[in-house]
Structure formats: structure tokens, C-alpha cells
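#struct-help
A.M.: can someone run this one for me? Single chain, 165 residues.
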Amino acid sequence: MKKSKQTKLVVVNGIIAAVYIALSVLVFPVASGAIQFRISECLNHLVVFNKRLMWGVLGGVLIFNLMMSTPMDVLFGGGQTFLCLAIMVLLEKFIPDIKIRLALNTILFTLSMALIAWMILITAPEPVAFWPTYATTALGEFVVMAASAPLMYYIDSRIHFAKQV
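D.P.: on it. C-alpha cells below:
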């Protein structure tokens, strides 16, 4: 890879991280905790179109959680994001249909909110129940991911994420 392509990849991933952080700050009161509605999670779909964009999404998650949440959220949130994005990168070889990958990405991220619910369970200052916490975090994730999948598909049809870096 030429230096200019490497530089462009780093810059694009930096922009993605910055957009993730900005969108999370925009909805800060509901961006963390048992009730989450992080609109920035729509950027998780970028990996469906271009696996090289996963680092910008992961960087955004880690930086936002470091700035605005707890060290445990950096660990659990970053781990959950990395795990889901990595699985989607691996699935790309076996599932060529982008619409199916968008649906799987939505399901995978929704199910993986169990990790976030577990983190809340073990770090909450007062006892919380796992299933209601999982239900609220998973519901917020599902709504954002499901609603944004068609939008990301449309945006990709115009700017072609795979060709950008």
C-alpha cells in the first residue's frame, strides 16, 4: 500500500472516530447506562461495506468511553465493539450479500449488549437486575442499528464506502 493510501486510511478512520464521538456527545444523557440510545452506533454498519473502517469505529467507542464513561466501559464497550466488528469482517468472506450482512450486524450488536448489561450489573452502585438492563440496552441498540441500516445502504449507494480507502 502506498504511503498516500495509508495516510488516507488513517485520516478517514480518524474522521469516523470523531463523528462517533460527536454523535455520542449529542445524545449524551442517553449514550451510557442502562437505557442507551447512542445514534453513533449506526457507524457500526461501516464494517459491512469496508472492513478497513472498523478501526475508526472502535477508536470512537474507546475515546468516547474514556472521556465520558468509566474504565470498565472502555474495557467492556471496546471489547464488545471489537468482537462484533471482527466477526463481521470474518463473515464477509462467507456472506457476500450486503443486505444480509447489515441484518446480521444488527442482530449481532443487539445480542452482544448482554456484555454491556453484565458490565452494568457488576459495576452499578446499587443492585440492578440483568434481564431488564439487557432488555433496555438491547432495545436501544436494535432501534439504532435497524433504523440506520437502510440509511447506510443508501449512503453507500451514493459514495461507495469500499472505494473510499
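A.M.: thanks! The two ends are 11 Å apart (CA to CA).
D.P.: also worth noting: The mean pLDDT is 95.
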